[in-house]
Each structure stands twice: as structure tokens, then as C-alpha cells.
Amino acid sequence: MNKQLELLITLHDLDLMISEIAEMGQDVVELGFSTPNIEELQEQRVVLAAEFDQAVLGRYEALRKRYGRPVVPVTRGVCHGCFTTLPTSLTNASNSMIAQCENCGRFLYWLK
Ligand SMILES: [Zn+2]
């Protein structure tokens, strides 16, 4: 898998975790569940962000502001962000490259 794509998927998971904890963190703590410490996750995020190609990271941040979920899987040629069938130019794309949906602009990865 393309290294930047791998980083994108990892950062995406981390961001989803951070926002979930930010939303319900305090309640969960009060219920006695142990959740990852949000400051630690944010530190991990800084470390991860430093490994990125800055142009890719910039696009990711812009898409995250717009959609919340900027990295989505493709199954059967359909983008799972906007549910549009991808054009044939992307049918042969794979996880060895960074691809974006031509309709919504989200980063794409292929589930095998
Ligand atoms: Zn799309």
C-alpha cells in the first residue's frame, strides 16, 4: 500500500477516535470505562502529521472540515462518501496510489 495512503487511513481513524471521545468522553469516564487519553491521542496525531507529504495533509484537513469523513473505501467501483460510481479512469486505480473521488473529492482506498 502507498505509504501516504496508509498514513491517511491511520490519521483518519485517529481523528474519528479523538472526536468520539471529545463528544462523549466525560460521560464515559463517569461510567467507569477506560478511554484513551485525549491529550495522548493528540500528541500521536502531531507525530503522525509530521510524516505526511504536506500537500496531502493540507487536502486532508480541508476535506475533514468539509465532510468529517475525508477518507472512504471503494467497493464495486462506488465511492462510499457520495455513492457515485467512479469513472473508468479510476477503475484500475489501486492502493498503490493516492486517488480522490472526482465527484466529492474524498480520498479513496480499495477494499479487496
Ligand atoms: Zn465521492
Key features?
single chain, alpha+beta, Helix Hairpins, four-stranded mixed beta sheet, 4 helices, 54% helix, binds zinc ion
Quick overview of this protein structure:
This protein is α+β, with helices and mostly antiparallel strands and 112 residues long.
Q: Can you characterise this structure?
A:
By secondary structure, the protein is an alpha+beta fold. It has a single domain, classed as Helix Hairpins (Orthogonal Bundle), CATH 1.10.287.1490. The chain has helices at 3-31, 38-50, 54-67, 88-91; strands at residues 71-75, 78-79, 99-100, 107-110. It starts with a helix and ends with a strand. Zinc ion is lined by residues 79, 81-82, 84, 101, 103-104, 106.
How does the SSE layout of this entry go?
Layout: H1 3-31, H2 38-50, H3 54-67, E1 71-75, E2 78-79, H4 88-91, E3 99-100, E4 107-110
Parallel strand pairs: 1-4
Antiparallel strand pairs: 1-2, 3-4
